[in-house]
Specification:
Layout: H1 2-11, H2 13-33, E1 37-42, E2 48-53, H3 59-77, H4 83-90, H5 96-128, H6 137-160, H7 166-177, H8 183-190, H9 209-222, H10 233-253, H11 273-286, H12 296-317, H13 324-346
Antiparallel strand pairs: 1-2
Helix pairs in contact: 1-5, 2-5, 3-5, 3-6, 5-6, 6-9, 6-10, 11-12, 11-13, 12-13
Length: about 350
């Protein structure tokens, strides 16, 4: 196991260096070219110019962190998608759990080395420029963002490894990113006057929700502005932690059951097309306005929805010859969605 970890770290040195250079270049340009404060003129009395912090710019390294948490799982676990690679790695004298652990630790290295270097480069640039920030907010946010990045990496590693090909893995990642937001498409149509708290955003339901909230909070802290309410944290923290912990548990507990012959085959896992396609079709069909059903616009929207579902199943099967179960699943999901839309329109 020690030799495997040492090899994994050496193998990732060059990608880590490349990622670090790109991240530092992007963050450095943003921090050097952006305004850090604005002048505010207050007439009368003790009138004069005051300096108001404009933007802490921590969103730049945060975006770098988020992008790495999506890209690195593809790099680290694509060996499962290629028959030649999977046979090579599974022939090593280590258990699959240990192999998954080595890949996970290597992935965290690929994420946190570029993120750390770019983050502190940005902080040094802030120190060298004239600023009026609450500077202790920078190290505090860095410490908060590390576990959030680790949880995010776990979520996307789990989702990616549910598929048997690179393309299907990307579909799984994208599909489940927006899955928890889907019900609000239904609510916005059938309950347009629903009064949601101002602090609530649908984006908070995505895997990036807590990271985005934290960045917003610490940006206000650093800029010495009025801090936003912490109420969303009451449910985003448990949601994010449970998603991340569940993802890591699923990643390691299913490692032993992964079959080498599945590499490159159809992604028949329930985490992929078999659930994602009918789920999206059902919720989007139920989000059709009941008042518009039967109109030309509704017919066009329904047709596009059905065609989209069929295309997804064609991609899943890699053939235009779909199974009867696919047609039935799509028809039932669409019909049930339209029925729900009609029922809510009546009542």
């Amino acid at each position: 196991m020690t030799k495997l970890l040492r090899y994994e770290m050496k193998r990732n040195l060059l990608p880590a260096a490349v990622f670090s250079a790109i991240a530092c270049l992007i963050v450095g340009i943003v921090y050097m070219s952006s305004d850090l404060f604005r002048l505010n003129y207050s007439p009368g009395g003790n009138g004069g110019f005051s300096h108001i912090p404009y933007d802490s710019l921590i969103s730049a390294p945060t975006i770098v962190l988020a992008v790495l948490c999506i890209a690195v799982p593809v790099m680290q676990f694509s060996y499962r998608m290629r028959g030649r690679d999977i046979d090579l790695w599974y022939s090593l004298p280590v258990t699959r759990e240990k192999l998954t652990l080595a890949r996970t630790l290597g992935g965290l290295m690929l994420i946190f080395v570029p993120y750390t270097l770019s983050y502190w480069l940005g902080f040094v640039i802030v120190l060298l420029r004239e600023n009026y920030f609450v500077l202790y907010g920078y190290p505090l946010y860095y410490l908060v963002s590390l576990p959030l990045g680790a949880l995010l990496f776990g979520v996307y590693s789990f989702l990616y490894t549910r598929a048997n090909s690179v393309g299907d893995g990307l579909v799984c990642m994208a599909g489940w990113t927006f899955a928890l937001m889907l019900p609000f498409a239904f609510l916005s149509v059938h309950f347009p006057r629903l009064d949601l708290p101002r602090s609530f955003s649908v984006w908070q339901l995505s895997p990036f929700g807590l990271l985005s909230l934290s960045a917003d909070y610490f940006n206000e802290l650093i800029c010495a502005d009025a801090l936003p309410t912490l109420l969303p944290l009451a449910w985003t923290i448990p949601l994010t932690v449970s998603e991340g912990a569940g993802a890591y548990a699923g990643l390691f507990l299913t490692a032993r059951r992964h079959k080498a012959e599945n590499g490159g085959q159809l992604s028949s896992s329930l985490w992929c097309y078999r659930v994602l396609v009918p789920l999206y079709v059902f919720i989007l069909a139920s989000s059709l306005s009941a008042d518009a059903l039967g109109t030309q616009l509704a017919l066009i929207e329904g047709a596009f929805l059905l065609v989209g579902g069929l295309i997804c199943f064609v991609v899943y099967r890699r053939s235009f010859r779909l199974k009867t179960s696919d047609i039935i699943t799509l028809s039932v999901a669409f019909g049930a969605g339209v029925l729900v839309s009609v029922l809510f329109g009546i009542f």
